[in-house]
Amino acid sequence: MILEMKVPSPGESITEVEIAEWLVQDGDYVEKDQAIAEVDSDKATLELPAEASGTITLKAEEGDAVAVGQVVCLIDTSAEKPEGSESAASVKEEKKEEAPKKEEAKPVATESKTYATGTPSPAAKKIIEERGLDASTISGTGKDGRITKDDAVNAVPSMGTPTGGNRGTSRSKMSMLRRKVAERLVEAKNTTAMLTTFNEVNMTPIFELRKQYKEEFKAKHGVGLGFMSFFTLAVVRALQEYPAVNSMIDGKEMISYDFVDVSIAVSGPKGLMVPVIRNAENLTFRGVEAEVKRLALRARDGQITVDEMTGGTFTISNGGVFGSMLSTPIINPPQSGILGMHNIIQRPIAVDGKVEIHPMMYVALSYDHRIIDGRESVGFLVAVKEALENPTELLMNNDVKKALEL
């Protein structure tokens, strides 16, 4: 029996996907539920499992855009597994173990072109001298590589000192996910009145709390006490105080939410992923840390689903993990605000008239000025700053152990 495998719908509103990579070869014997391909949608990269065991015939090439419901391969379910041979899955797993850990694909530089050198014709020699060209870098198209007048005219003059180094280029196709991210970033710049306001946060109180309780917290809950829980809960508090920041535009209407779904920007193997922490207003420190860890692992392993990245009302982006000191984060449409975290450095600041050194972080709020005014944007960021600099009172209700569930 020949089974036709069709592209399943990876989510609502998605009509086509792209074959990112076949994990098997034409004619391989595959097992039921074995991952046979990775497919890119405009929201996520997903694995395509075999619907039955048998010999596979591929009907699409890597890089092909295929419609949802289109046949991409055939599986001959009547074929028997070859005796004494391993399935494609086990062979692939062995190769995976033997080979170095697969890294994200990078463009490979091509070899630089070696130009044929030849004697310039009299007319070409004159042009070369007038333009200050180097004859050894000009490819001659005349007989025996002779440099013609046209060769000299069309030659590009050197814009710097020749080094003899590799000057190759490469070209690679962007994934559907990467192209969608690019489209959304351009959309955000073109369709929003985006402004950014900045502030700084003294992280000393959070450092002290983490130093005192992080070991006990991890032993009790199995997750670390990181910065994301403090920032997420500080954002929840600020959004409840300034609900306009937790709103978005839909045509001529403004939609405001009485819940907080926080999108967390993370870097995955396929590019930027933005999984969502649902109803963050109902989560404790333990709940936020557990959800951040779960979503980050799924994004890293390429298992994140479209539903897990849909519907956030506000975004937090942590460029500090890459060493960024200050940036203007770009809004994640259709949301109206994004908070940028940055690296923490020891800086001298004035405290009660004295200079002290403290761990400081710059924070930035980019917002859509069409529905968020200066009062709301600045007030929101100040509220975040206040909560982070006084977490015991404003985020823990003066009961640290109860807030950390210790």
* CATH topology term of the largest domain: Chloramphenicol Acetyltransferase
Major sheet: 8 strands, mixed
Number of domains: 3
Q: How many beta-strand elements?
A: 18
| Overall body shape | extended
- Name the CATH superfamily assignment of the largest domain: Chloramphenicol acetyltransferase-like domain
* Count of helix runs: 10
Give the structural class. Answer: alpha+beta
Mean pLDDT: 84
- Strand coverage percent: 15-25%
Distance N to C terminus: 59 Å
Order of helices and strands: EEEEEEEEHHHHEHHEEEEEHEEEEHHH
Percentage of residues in helical conformation = 25-40%
| Uncertain stretches of 5 or more adjacent residues | 99-116
Q: Which radius of gyration do the C-alpha atoms yield? A: 29 Å
CATH-level-2 architecture of the largest domain: 2-Layer Sandwich
CATH class of the largest domain: Alpha Beta
Explain the overall architecture.
The protein is α+β, with helices and mostly antiparallel strands. It folds into three domains: 2-98, OB fold (Dihydrolipoamide Acetyltransferase, E2P); 122-154, Dihydrolipoamide Transferase, CATH 4.10.320.10; 177-403, Chloramphenicol Acetyltransferase, CATH 3.30.559.10. It contains ten helices and 18 strands. Strands 9, 12, 13, 14, 15, 16, 17 and 18 form an eight-stranded mixed beta sheet that branches. A hairpin with a 2-residue loop joins strand 10 and strand 11. Helix 6 (227-241) crosses helix 7 (285-300) and helix 6 packs across helix 8. The longest helix has 18 residues, at 204-221. The protein is extended, with a radius of gyration of 29 Å. The termini are far apart.
